[in-house]
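2024-03-11 09:14:02 INFO worker-7 job=invfold-0412 stage=load source=structure_tokens
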């Protein structure tokens, strides 16, 4: 069984989903792949994890680095989950490129190279926006590239974290 709740952020309405293990989704309404990991068996119900997520988001949107631990339940392929876990290690106020993420995965797998495009696809399918900070992943040239929630939101999220972006997007 999955549960859902809603959060009104300064950047638009968000849908939260969880199961008995942890948070399974956090999407901006209307974003690409919206609710893609949501099962058909859902119930709207306030759960403890939703209270923690909403407190985390309140802190985040106030420009503070959240310190609340959110239990996650990542539902995806082995590769997607591997990429999403690495996203969680990108520090607040920092960015990494798709190529840098690919190098991390290649080193972890003890292989020569990993496709930055494959990493980009997995990043784009991240079901837990903001908490797993896919908005902190930028192009090799330092420019904003793809964000399922839209480049304007990506820009605003990075700016909120104090990241200077020299991009017209």
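2024-03-11 09:14:09 INFO worker-7 stage=emit residues=169
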């Amino acid at each position: 069984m999955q549960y859902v709740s809603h959060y009104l952020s300064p950047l638009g309405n968000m849908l939260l989903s969880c199961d008995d293990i942890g948070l399974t989704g956090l999407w901006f309404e209307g974003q690409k792949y919206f609710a893609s990991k949501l099962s058909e068996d859902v119930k709207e119900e306030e759960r403890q994890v939703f209270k923690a997520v909403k407190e985390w988001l309140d802190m985040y949107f106030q420009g503070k680095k959240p310190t609340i631990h959110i239990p996650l339940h990542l539902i995806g392929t082995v590769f997607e989950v591997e990429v999403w876990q690495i996203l969680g290690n990108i520090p607040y106020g920092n960015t990494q490129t798709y190529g840098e993420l690919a190098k991390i995965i290649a080193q972890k797998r003890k292989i020569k190279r990993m496709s930055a495009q494959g990493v980009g696809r997995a990043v784009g399918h991240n079901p837990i926006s903001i908490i797993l900070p896919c908005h902190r992943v930028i192009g090799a040239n330092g420019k904003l590239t793809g964000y399922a929630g839209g480049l304007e939101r990506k820009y605003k999220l990075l700016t909120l974290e104090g990241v200077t972006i020299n991009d017209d997007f």
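2024-03-11 09:14:09 INFO worker-7 stage=report msg="The radius of gyration is 16 Å."
2024-03-11 09:14:10 INFO worker-7 job finished
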